[in-house]
Amino acid sequence: MVERVMDSMRNEDIALAEALHAEMAETTDVSRWTELNIEFHAALWASQSDTRLAHLIKSLRDASGPYIALSIYMKPEHIERSNAEHQKMLDEYKARDMAAVKRHTVDHLDATLSIIVKAIEQVETEKPD
Question: How many Å separate Cα 74 from the centre of its chain?
Fold first, then answer.
C-alpha cells in the first residue's frame, strides 16, 4: 500500500495530515485525540481511499479506535510518544522515503498494539473476581 500511496499522494493530503497532527499535539481530550488519530492516518492514505485494501485498512483502523482510546486513557503519556511518531511519519512521507515509511509504519503499529495489549491486561487484572 505504501508504494501506491507514494505514487499518488497529493500535497493537500500531506497538508491535511499536518493540520490534524497540529491539532493532536494541542488536545488533551482522549476522545478527540483518538478521532484525530483516525483522521490523520486516513489523510496520509487518502489518495488510495477507494481501493479494496484501503477499505480493509479503514475497517481495521475503525475497529481499533476504542482500544486505542482505552490505552491512551489509561496511559496519557502515550499521546506524546504517538505524536512524536506521527511527526516522524509526516517527515518521511514528505521526503517520499518509502523504505523509512514502511519501516516506521510497522514500528508504529507494533508499538500501538503493545500499548493496547498492556491496557487490556491491566483492565483484566483490575476486574473484581
Answer: 18
Residue type, 7: D
d(CA 63, CA 116) in angstroms, rounded, equals 12
Cβ(10)–Cβ(47) below 8 Å: yes
- Chain segment 60-108, per-residue pLDDT in tens: 878 877 877 877 787 788 889 889 999 999 999 999 998 998 898 888 8
Give CA–CA dist 72/70, Å, rounded: 5
Q: At what angle do helices 77-94 and 98-126 cross, to 10 degrees?
A: 160
Nearest of 1, 129, 114, 27 to residue 79 by alpha carbon: 27
Residues 30/73, Cβ–Cβ less than 8 Å:
yes
What would the DSSP string read from start to end of 47-102? GGTTSHHHHHHHHHHHHHHHHHHHHHHH-THHHHHHHHHHHHHHHHHHTT-HHHHH
| Chain center to CA of 60 | 12
Q: Are 122 and 43 in contact (CB under 8 A)?
A: no
| pTM for the structure as a whole | 0.80
Block residue for cell numbers 499535539: 25
